[in-house]
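Task: encode each sequence below as structure tokens.

Item 1
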Amino acid sequence: MESLLSKIRPGVFQCLHRTSVLLRRSHSESSQNDAAAAASTEPRAFKPTLLVSRLYQPSSLRDMGLDTLVPGEMTCKSQRLMQQAGLIHPSNPGCYYYLPAMVRSMEKLMRVIDQEMQMIGGQKIDMPSLCSAELWKASERWDLMGNELFRLKDRQGRDYCLAPTHEEAVTTLIAHQTSLSYRQLPLLLYQITRKFRDELKPKFGLLRGREFYMKDMYSFDMSEESAFQTYESVCEAYTRLFKRLGLHCVQVQADTGNIGGKLSHEFQLPAEIGEDRLLVCESCSFSANLETVISNRSDCPQCKTGTMVESRGIEVGHTFYLGKKYSNVFNATFSNAQGKYSVAEMGCYGLGVTRIVAAAIEVMSTKERICWPGLIAPYQVCVIPPKKGSKEDKAAVLAEELVHTLGETLPGLRGEVVFDDRTQMTIGKRLKDASKLGYPYVVVVGHGALEETPSYEVICQQTGDKIFLSKDGLLDLLVRVETV
């Protein structure tokens, strides 16, 4: 019996020991949970995450004035402002680094473009930038493009180019789809990618570079009539897009150039530095690029009575009705209602993504500060707390809480509110920086926030208005901000 007990006792003691440990652990975890629950009832300190001091935006806002520029270094206002604000940084001639704030703006613009293109049936694709010379030789554009085409050879000696446009590539893609039916038309395919053009003298920053982003769409229709309907729907989408951005673009008749086709329009943003000369009738809706109008003509070719006024513009969009120029060459066909193959009617439509951003800054901004189209501003709101150690320093906590409130109450502003945590600087200096960077709304949390009825100073950058609002008033103002 004793030998049996000696065998049982160790197992019992081990079991009792494990039970004791588990009870102690359970009690400890329960205490921790109770402490956590108690802590959750206490006020929480919310720390903003989008801090100006942490944003990678190597700007020179105070040491790059107009009087310090090397002659010829900056060729236009938008280039100077964008480099000064840390939106872009020069790399090679005609090529730039796009820095985080610029990328945010471009991504927003791309989302707006996606919305408008998909609203009219556009489907997004992505085609190779490296294109075979055989395609370009088949369309006869290999020689027609001249020195503007970036050309290269692979290790087998085969010729390629870095595509400035993709008419050849997309038409070849459709030609390979032998099952395309008339029921699938119109077919609209588009992409937003980098494009390349070997400019002899790149200038004006992103307005004329060697590498740039562009949206290019290509349409395939069963007849000339339906192709014109598609053409009009794209032009209307462009008009809506520019209206959403607050840009007053003019649709003008244009030359088809080396892309070719039967009909072409440019979307021009009037600007003093624009390289295109435009003629606009004062009496009717007629407008055209000067190169398409008979020289020395002063009367309107449409209404015959209006006076033509000349101005300059920046081309930000271009549309072409191509007919069968490319589809005949590459045999892009579809099966018609009778079950027979027919050659598709085509159109192509471009939007300069980087050029739109730069052109908008060029025409909307002052010499000293950027003014953005609200929809594509990198950030919508900048909150400035008081200087550390100042009389208003107690309002710093209120500023942090305000950032949290804006994000929680207004879901559209999540990720859109930055907090200028450089509290070693005066409010005035940070206000000057915020003005130059162009945040649509700047909120200063100062002595007014400590009053019995707290108020916040709000600067609306696009209008220049300065107002004082309660928190509810501020929320009522910012709830109307449109974001994408």
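Item 2
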Amino acid sequence: MNLCLQLLFTLISLHAGVWGKSVCSWQDVLDHLNLTANRDKLTMTRPTRDWTTPTVVYLDVLVYAILSVSWANELLSWDPADFCGIHQVSVPRELLWKPDLFLYETMEKGEGTGSPFVLLKHDGTVVTDGNQKVMSMCAMDVHKFPFDTQKCTLSFSSVIHPDNEIQLVPASNSSRATQNALEIMLSQGEWEFINVTVHTDKLIFQELGSWDKVVYTITIRRAPLLHVLTFILPILFLLVLDLASFFMPDTRGDKLAFKVTVLLAMSVLLLILTDTLPCKPSQTPLIAVYVIVTFAFMLLSVLETILVAYLTERGATESAGTPQGHGAGGGTRDHHSEGLHLTSDEGNGKSVLRGCICEANGVHQQEALPLTGRPDPYEGSEGNPTTHLLRLILQELQRGVQRPTQEHGTSRHHHTMARSINTTFFLLYLLSISLFLILLFLNWVYW
């Protein structure tokens, strides 16, 4: 009898335990929090029981338009043990108060894919994630373009609430923010992501108070390969061609035409550069210095080629256009020719040297030169006519040799001057452009 009563009591207890188990839902939590009936209280004012207690807002920014914000709502909390272990519920965004965060560098706010719900935890913590595409302003420093590194800042602050009401605190430090950004990046395009640094700051306005501000500094570096292949190397190739043109023979102006063609190609690259760089950079870009200085060197090379061609052509003209009788003094004697011949005066038995001057009009003038002078040592005291004749012939031959030398002296001087100028300019050109390129490269990449 006692055994039957005990078994019956055990069965009744088991059924009572099963039937007495509570069933919980998220709606029970919302009803407990009175979210459906008292919405104005939770949306119109800052959720604190004491107005002097500041609301701490934790801000976390991930590159590629992800913004995570969390804060504590003192008016909403529950014990998870009373609701079957429910620790968090999702609530429509419009039911709760949200901090009025503002991005100072924003220019245009695009459409985002943020969730229409916020996450409400049992201790009153509200977490919201908003995916927003924001176009922000960034001060570009293109001094080292295309090897430049840019730093863009994103500054968040409250619009209305000062720091005694809302305290902004970064949820992640710099290293964690950088690691999170690197994990979600799939492609970086023209820019290479370096890191993210986070720090807090204050906005102080006289007679109004101070506001907390969280500043995220995003460091990115440009990928220079495309610009090097399409812009920097072509200019360097044109410069090498201009240097190689010094070894070209200057025939019929081919060297000058080649240099002018290279200079025109540089002008086309200058037009491309003006479309690439910003209109009003803070500093002169090094790539602009690179192009302008290279252009100036090529222009000087063209002017030097013109000078050398002028000197060469002038020397060639004087050499080809001067007749054989051109003297050193610049006078011409191409209207007559001179000659010497020996005749004998039969009257007195003496030999006479006659100089013949043949004018251009066919008139011959002769002058008799008696062969008298210094006595020949082989003939005693009397002068030898043959010796005098040979002496005069030798003097005539010397004058004939000196005339071509004087005629071509100016031509050789011009050619020598042109070669000297060309060699000196090439050495200075090569030395200057090499030194310039080395200093520019060091300043471009390392300094």
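Check on item 2: Helices lie at 2-19, 26-33, 39-43, 174-184, 225-244, 254-276, 286-321, 385-445. The longest strand covers residues 191-205.
End of task.
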